């Protein structure tokens, strides 16, 4: 009997060539993702990149235009209640229960699940014990967001979707929230898919980052891998003899500087060697997408 190869990772989310168009506007242009059990995965991209659209497709709230999707072994378009119960959702648009009191709302949501968390423990976990008796519409923005997270994890999800979870948080609330996500992933083995447009947040929290820009994943890897890739090409800047500023990207900056010296009559004016940071690379990608360079190149590649 032939044995099936054991997969290196237990894949919780898998997408292949997913596209999405709203009318004649292409928002996703072929998205491939593999998210492994227990990892914190950040989908990073600027406003309008298609992060929420991607997450809604994975959650089964939106029909994709084309492509294959598996989430916890099922196609989200055909996920049943049992499948849905294994997901935790923290959406961007907030659920409207303004007159409920915090503890009542949590206790109510807990009844939807077979093995819910204890609401009092959950309030402590998200730092809302002091607000247990408060009406939801009296909470601050950051407190509401923490309540959203509590509602997202009350059913002990295997896979938690956090769509721009820290928007509107002050630095302390953000820090507390990061600790909470780490705890869920490290101690409870929850797989987390987080969307953000904040590179620092993605670097801080994620095991792996996918940069979604212009409807495609433009880079994917651990924060360290992405930073290394970004820095692989150094940028050498100098001022030419006629006074024009020059810049060149190269994997071998010392050779370029040596050549400049060899060819120069004297010292090289304005000489500078920089290693781009991950942020430089991200901003560069966003700019290329905004001015259409990426799209033109994608179309050329397809035509070829
Ligand atoms: N229901 C819809 N109908 C038409 N266009 C839509 C719809 N929803 C989103 N879009 C458009 O699709 C693009 C991607 O939107 P999406 O909300 O997925 O981006 P995002 O990366 O989550 O952005 P943000 O960071 O601003 O939340 C945007 O240009 C948006 O205007």
Characterization of this structure:
By secondary structure, the chain is α/β, with parallel strands linked by helices. The protein folds into two domains: 11-227, P-loop containing nucleotide triphosphate hydrolases (Rossmann fold), CATH 3.40.50; 232-303, no CATH class. 37% of the residues lie in helices and 26% in strands. It contains eleven helices and twelve strands. The strands form three sheets. Strands 5-6-7-3-8-9 form a six-stranded mixed β-sheet, with helices on both faces. The longest helix has 18 residues, at 171-188. The chain is elongated, with a radius of gyration of 23 Å. It starts with 10 loop residues before the first strand and ends with a helix. It binds adenosine-5'-triphosphate. Adenosine-5'-triphosphate binds at residues 22, 27, 45, 47-53, 197. Adenosine-5'-triphosphate (ATP) is lined by residues 22, 27, 45, 47-53, 197.
Keywords:
304 residues, alpha/beta, Rossmann fold, 2 domains, 6-stranded mixed sheet, 3-stranded antiparallel sheet, 12 strands, 37% helix, binds adenosine-5'-triphosphate, ABC_transporter_ATP-binding
In round numbers, the mean pLDDT is 88
Largest sheet composition: 6 strands, mixed
Number of distinct helices: 11
CATH topology of the largest domain: Rossmann fold
Q: Which percent band covers the strand fraction?
A: 25-35%
Task: Give the helix/strand class.
Answer: alpha/beta
What is the CATH-assigned architecture of the largest domain?
Answer: 3-Layer(aba) Sandwich
List the uncertain runs.
none
CATH superfamily (homologous) name of the largest domain = P-loop containing nucleotide triphosphate hydrolases
Spatial sequence of strands, sheet with the most strands: 5-6-7-3-8-9
Calculate Rg over CA atoms.
23 Å
What small molecules does the structure contain?
Answer: adenosine-5'-triphosphate
Please estimate the helix content: 25-40%
Shape: elongated
What is the N-to-C order of secondary-structure elements (H for helix, E for strand)?
A: EEEHEHEHHHEHEHEEHEEHEHH
Q: Which CATH class of the largest domain applies here?
A: Alpha Beta
N→C terminal distance: 44 Å
Q: How many domain regions?
A: 2
